[in-house]
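Memo to structure team: turn this sequence into structure tokens by end of day. - J.P.
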Amino acid sequence: MRTRRAARAEHDATLMISRHHGAVGTPPRSSSPRSRPDTVAMLALLLFWGWVVAMVVRGTVRWDQIAVALFATVLAFGPPRAKQLLRGVLPLGLVGLTYDAMRFVEHWGVSESTVHLCDLRALELRWFGISSGGERITLHDWLQPRASAWLDLLAAVPYGAFLAVVFGYCVYLFVRDFEAQQRFAWAFFAVNLLGFATYHLYPAAPPWYFHRYGCTVDLHALASAGPNLTRVDALLGVSYFSGMYGRASDVFGAVPSLHVAYPTLMLAVGWPLHGTLGRGLLALFLLWMAFSAVYLDHHWVVDIIAGVAYALVVAYGARRLAPLFGRALARDEPAFQSETGRAPG
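Reply from structure team:
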């Protein structure tokens, strides 16, 4: 009798413990990790849907703004791994919001007296000019008359795909090394903020602007894809590049070249994670982008050097702050493990 009573008492105690930890029975709906967004997810939803509502009120909402908000919603109400992915790509979404909001400050710091145009070209001639026909010209002056359809297409590839490449690399790092992914994502956000600020602290005209307007600063000039990418649109029968640059708010945003900063950041953050092949591919993408920036008449060589410098400084700062990322991940890891049974990344 005592043995039977002891066994029953042990069974009842085990049952109570199991129910307490959610192993038996169905947990309340409010505590399900799939149905309840965490704090970061709620913040993301507030930002993205708040922006959509603001644009609806202004009558300027776009499909891509709604798509980003819907994507964030799916991740926010998804399983723990989806919520972690939302946290991983959140800095990229913040870059999109910031870029979108630049239209409201497009004239800050930009005037006829502050725009750098022919002084920047003179610097380009002094440092990177070449001799042709007995005169000093820029690489852009030499390349534009020698443009061809196949070179236009070759240079258009990294310019048309850079956002997809950045997002894809971010997801790759998310799967492989979440701490490295967070360094890359937040460094991407930081380098964009520095670039956007520079556009207003040091407004600079791109080469295509000089070739179209000369040394005259026209504050009413519209952003352009440039002659080469315009030809690519015409050749393919699309308006991809004209539509992309038609939404740009910064005509005088040549310095730094963020197009070049992005692959530099990928190379700097990803260098310790890759072998010879991975490093070589990232370096090739960087060189491809740098060539395209010059050939497409979008950036001076000075702009490219500035973009590389910005990315290296930010990458160094992100690495110095890596212990903070590590401690933040350590705080999140126990909760993630309890919900999924494995560590993140």
